[in-house]
Amino acid sequence: MSGPELIKFFNAFGLSDEYTREGLPNSWSRNEYAYERLKEVNGSPEFKSLVEAIADSRKVSNPDAVVSELSEIIKHDGYLFEKDERGIFKVTGSEFNDPVQIAAHFQEIKNQIIESIQSAEFTIWIAVAWFTDRDIGNELRLKHQEGVNVRVIVNDDDTTDRHGLDFFSRGIEYKKVSPSSPWGKKLMHNKFCIIDLCKVIHGSYNWTSNAQYNNESITITESRELAEEFSRQFIELRSQNT
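Now predict its structure.
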């Protein structure tokens, strides 16, 4: 990676460096910078995701070879790489325990959602009753253009027809779920977003233009286990009416 690319990579895992006219911080070489920043991130909740990102097929042309080399290092601590059904490498281990971080937000909720979207590297899955906020929609469009997998589920009703955003024309996977069922009306009233299969945004906040003026709340939870539970629910919703 170039110097600016290295800084962007490490900043995605909790750092906040800047590339200046003088180059990398402390006038380090790229090797020195990577070594010092690896030491800084080591032991943090972000470190596992960083190791997995090194083997991301979107960043390297030979992920299998990279995984082979990394496996020789992490195996001594009881960890290994496994490739899931989508062909993505994940670090696993019998004693691995993902830390859980939970933050509740009652103010500036829209900004919190946008910041979380901007941090996404791989996937953004959203299930909300109504989605009319154009600012959030534009952030999703930008992430889609970067190659992030963006999927949106909303209610198939008059509100969506009149005011909903047209994700389909932007190439974003977009599903409208009927609120009817064999047992009568069954509104899809979820309000959650899963980011990178490790972060969940969940709460009372509808992703609408007016929601920012209400008394609302969300929690942002970093937990792979919780993200997987919400992902199963997302897939179940997506399979409705098909």
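The longest strand covers residues 149-155.
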